[in-house]
Amino acid sequence: MCDLYLVEQGTYLRKDQGRFVLQSRRDEDLEIPIREVERILLFGNIHLSTAAIAICLGRQIPVVFLSQTGQYKGHLWGVERGDLEAERRQFGQYADVTFQLETARSMIRGKLTNSRQLLLRLNRKRTLEPVAQVIEGIQRDVAALERAETLDQLRGYEGMTAARYFPALGQLMINPDLVFMKRNRRPPKDPINSLLSFGYTLLFNNVMSLILAEGLNLGC
């Protein structure tokens, strides 16, 4: 099973018996067995036939619509049955401020810890002192998360860590053709930021598909 990413503008996706057929303006048609496709992501001006839409709905193959730069627009998802009990519990937790705070704290703690671990691993051989100081700063941010009493405070620590992390990551890049100073987006202005944005887009859509598969409500 694989994800199908359609990025060439003007591509037409149609169904031909048990295959998806990709018709491009420049290349020969490409055929992909439908049974091998788990998810389809459309970037920009991509066209789907009615038959292709119908088979995606029938087989619950998520179709995600994005702008050409990867900004999420919407999705197509066929659900045979809803999970009302899961949604009931979800909406119950939505009003629970303590649950919101602890869930956000856990997620941000994981993000900060992973950021620190990556810098530690990359700096093991280079031993750059400025990066070592950033690692120590992120560790202080992780400890400070436990004292946060509001979601805004948690977001503040997440933002501070990002401000430390990205410049330090740029210092650890050894390819002279890849210069990375800070995070920018919408649109990203350099190759590294483009890769980061693309990676975040893939992650977002994977998480979204898992949420849908569990019968949860994306609007909550």
Fold blueprint:
Blueprint (H helix, E strand, L loop, with lengths): L1 E5 L5 E5 L2 E5 L6 E4 L3 E7 L3 E2 L1 H9 L4 E4 L5 E5 L7 H11 L2 H30 L2 H17 L5 H21 L19 H23 L7
Parallel strand pairs: 1-5, 2-6, 5-7
Antiparallel strand pairs: 2-3, 3-4, 7-8
Helix pairs in contact: 3-4, 3-5, 4-5
3D architecture notes:
- This protein has a domain at 1-80 and 189-220: CRISPR-associated endonuclease Cas1, N-terminal domain (Ribosomal Protein L15, Chain: K, domain 2), CATH 3.100.10.
- Helix 3 packs parallel to helix 5.
- It has a four-stranded mixed beta sheet. Strands 4-3-2-6 form a four-stranded mixed beta sheet.
- The two termini are 29 Å apart.
- It has 220 residues and is α/β, with parallel strands linked by helices.
- The longest helix has 30 residues, at 97-126.
- 50% of the residues lie in helices and 17% in strands.
- It is built from six helices and eight strands.
- The protein has helices at residues 50-58, 84-94, 97-126, 129-145, 151-171, 191-213; strands at 2-6, 12-16, 19-23, 30-33, 37-43, 47-48, 63-66, 72-76.
